[in-house]
Specification:
Layout lengths: L16 E4 L2 E4 L12 E2 L5 E2 L5 H7 L6
Antiparallel strand pairs: 1-2, 3-4
Length: 65
Amino acid sequence: MDNKDRRYVVRLKAGASFHTHHGFVDHDALLGQPRGLPVHAGRGEDLCVRPTLADVVLKMPAALR
């Protein structure tokens, strides 16, 4: 979640990265870390990586709902 309350749910994969409005987040920096750990995107914004149940349900593919 960013400072404008935008939420992203991403499945982590080794060697991949995710691009937000605030920069890139390397998946390798998150893998193996505890949930809820703030991370540093390229432009200095902190992001929270622990999704709520509502985040997961709302962002899951329609085929799984």
